[in-house]
Amino acid sequence: MEGWMTELFRLSAAASWTALAVLVVRLLLKRAPKIYSYLLWLLVFLRAALPVSFSSVFSVQGLGQLGRAALFRIGTMGMRSGGTPDAAGQAVGLAQIAAALSTETGAGSLSLGRAQGLAKTAADGESIFFLLGVLWLVGVCLFLLGSLYSFWKLKRTVAFAVRVEEGVYETDRIKTAFVLGIFRPRIYLPKGLSSSDVRLILEHERAHIRRHDHQIKAAAWLILLLHWFNPLLWVSFWLMGRDMEISCDESVLKNLDGQGRADYGDALLALAAPARGLKGTPLAFGENDVCIRIQNALRYRKAKGSVTAAAVLLVALTAVGCMSDPVQASSERDGARLTKDDAQLAFAREFASAAVNRDADTVYAMLAPKLQERAEEFGIFMQDGVRVMGFSSPFAGEDLEVSYMPEDSIQEYRIEYRVTALTSSPELYMWKGWLTLEPDGETYQVTNWLSRMYTEVAAMDDCINAYGQGIWDFTAYDLGGQTAGEWLQQHFEEGADPDYYGGFTDPGYALEKCLHLEGGEVKEIAPQKGQSWIRITYGWEYGEAVFEMAQVKEDGVWVPVKLLEIRSDQQ
Could you say which architecture CATH assigns to the domain 329-454? Predict the structure, then answer.
């Protein structure tokens, strides 16, 4: 259930950004034929349904990275309900616990108590995803049943309609014309229309059928049912229906003269009664938004060639931007040929990005066959027909670094990647991975992979490995409008979880919680830069580290700002 819901939310987020882009571009197409606006709305529903994409520098999906981080933060906040803040940051699937216990994944061995803690939190996380899945399924069923009921009522209404010609029926029980059906669509007309009105209305409805609008709208409705929780898709469906109708009007109007367009406006006016029986019924659609359509018919002028060309170009660019994903920063640009080393690092960056963002399909595809056979050891599983992997939290930041390891390092690993990871507490972790690549045709494959998240810095070596390149400034790290320090201060002032947040007024406690220091002790605290800044020395058996800390507010919480020095006693 977790894998399915995660993928559904990912698709819904991508469709949302596409909808926002289409709303903007639609304004630019105000004077263009409405067929182009109609085509743009199809991108929204394609993006909501297709799990695969391609990369482009024009992608609008990159705008959603901050939103994705916020969603992950909200998700990890929810997971805190079942355990301590530290446990919340380690919420994993039950299957991933077994992988975490394997030393081959790089997580190292875990104590029985730690494994039990992970299992409890995993159960809490799975319960949340299960609840979300149940709520989603209930919503789908309710909307589907409502649509089927509306369709059944409409079928009863036209059950005794009289056939006037092939595919056309007439009845006095309806107020407007519409098309009903998917594979064998029928046109239904209200009685009492003049022969000229009937001729023009039939041209409109047959244009719908020729363009397969009845099938397109039904498919969009089914996609909307899956994303019923997303208001932007409801707006998109409604606006798509309006643009569909107006574009169909224009397909008729372009073949009429001035008098014919006036007659067409009269025909629309004859259908101005509300189509109450059509609400919620995707298999039937009729003459809605009549006032807007009459105004458009009266103002209609054939578009100039330059307007049409500009509209086609704009739609094409929008399609590329909406249907693609952002390219990796280190990929080839402007056709430049990468050197062998650059190509390896580019491949490693793509793999690392997929790994830290839990893109199971991409990671699996980039593994060598011998590692694919052991996919479960790396936390990659098939769940409900979907390949899933990794932790639900912490989620990765945007500071991914990839580099070659020094020549004197462990030789079975050639490349190292580093990225910060964040939980809702908020706590920051260092997440590292080590790779070995081998050529695979014109690209590479991963033949050796080790990864580790430093959830416990319990010795001097751990401190050097995790923080040897520096720590993160909690007074500057942005959490979507708040720094990590401000977030902690707010929760302290609100009295949220006082046993946890209340301790941050003690700098030693704050240092240990923020950086996961264990197995040592605070040896010295020295004032620096006034009362709100201190130097704090934390020591283990074989060395010590000196940190700079700041107090966010007078009598408030303390947070680490900088690692000043590491002193190791080991020879």
Answer: Roll (3.10)
Helix axes 213-226, 195-210, angle to 10 degrees: 60
Residues in the chain: 571
Q: How far is Cα 240 from Cα 248, in angstroms, rounded to an integer?
A: 12
DSSP at 83: S
What gap in Å lies between CA 48 and CA 222, rounded to an integer?
Answer: 11
- Side-chain-side CA neighbours of 358 within 13 Å: the count stands at 25
187 neighbors 207 (Cβ within 8 angstroms) = no
The phi and psi torsions of 97 (rounded to 5 degrees) equal -65, -40
Amino acid at site 104 = E
Q: Taking the model in full, what pTM does it have?
A: 0.52
Task: Return the structure tokens found at 95.
Answer: 């299957």
Tokens of 552: 């966010």
Over the stretch 507-554, which tens digit does the pLDDT of each residue have?
999 999 999 999 999 999 998 766 689 999 999 988 999 999 999 998
Higher pLDDT, 514 or 273: 514
SS3 550: strand
Handedness of CA 206, 210, 216, 219 (dihedral sign): positive
Count the Cβ atoms, other than its own, within 10 Å of residue 408.
6
Please name the amino acid found at residue 526.
A
* CA atoms in the 13 A half-sphere facing the CB of 373: 3
SS3 521: strand
Yes or no: say if 538 and 523 are a contact pair by the CB < 8 Å rule: yes
Q: Is 90 exceeded by the pLDDT of residue 234?
A: yes
Task: Give residue-wise pLDDT tens across range 117-176.
Answer: 444 444 454 567 778 888 999 999 999 998 899 888 888 988 899 999 989 999 988 888
For tokens 């289409």, the residue is 22
Q: 457, 367, 392: which is closest to 97 by C-alpha?
A: 392
User: 186 in helix, strand or coil?
Assistant: strand
Phi, psi of 257 (to 5 degrees): -90, -175
E strands, 300-427, are: 324-326, 380-383, 386-389, 395-396, 401-404, 415-422
The CATH 3.10.450 domain(s) of the chain lie at 329-454
Distance CA 510, CA 491 (A): 14
